[in-house]
Amino acid sequence: MRMADGLTVGWLDSSIGALVRHDAGALARFGYWLVTSVDSSTDLPGNRSARTIVDRYAGCVFLGQGLIVPGTDAVDVAEEFDLFNGFDEVWLFETQPRKAKPPELSIVSPLNLGSDPVPPPLASWMGQAGCELGLGDGIGLNYAAQNEAVAKLIEGMAASRNQLRSSPD
């Protein structure tokens, strides 16, 4: 974990899918999820599964190239549509996102926020959009948080999951 551009950022040996499966409640507490990459697909309005989600779940809408999912439905949607399997990106908000993610902004691998420079528009967009936490995976899990407490939550979730994974059966 490190501070960069006013954000707490880092890289973990984990994934979005693993966190959702291990401790969904901690992530479901965020009011809205903005999903901007699913298995490297970033044109979610053009994605059949995403269009089906919008049709089936009230409150799910497109914002720019992303899909807004209310936090109360996010875990169910992720499970039903098997969304998070790698090279995914999701942004978590307390209130409805105010601004679409710029297309040039990505925190998906091969970027490593543990050591690589933070993408220039990251802090500015997160502030303007009201985003509390960004997660991007592929080869490990990148995270960017507006405050250290949220970053520690993600670090704790990953550590807990890793302890369970490495404990003898």
Task: Describe this protein's structure.
There is one protein chain. Strands 1-2-8-7-6-3-5-4 form an eight-stranded antiparallel β-sheet, sandwiched between helices. With 169 residues, it is an alpha+beta fold. The protein is globular. 37% of the residues are buried. The protein has helices at residues 16-28, 48-56, 71-80, 122-129, 148-166; strands at residues 2-4, 7-12, 32-37, 61-63, 66-70, 89-93, 131-138, 140-145.
DSSP strand content: 15-25%
- How many angstroms does the end-to-end distance come to? 31 Å
What's the shape?
Answer: globular
CA-atom Rg in angstroms: 15 Å
Number of helices: 5
Biggest sheet statistics? 8 strands, antiparallel
**Secondary-structure class:** alpha+beta
Q: Determine the oligomeric state from the structure.
A: single chain
Number of domains: 1
Helix-strand pattern: EEHEHEEHEHEEH
Level of helix content?
Answer: 25-40%
Low-confidence stretches: none
Quantity of strands, as a count: 8
In order across it, which strands form the biggest sheet?
1-2-8-7-6-3-5-4
| Overall pLDDT | 92
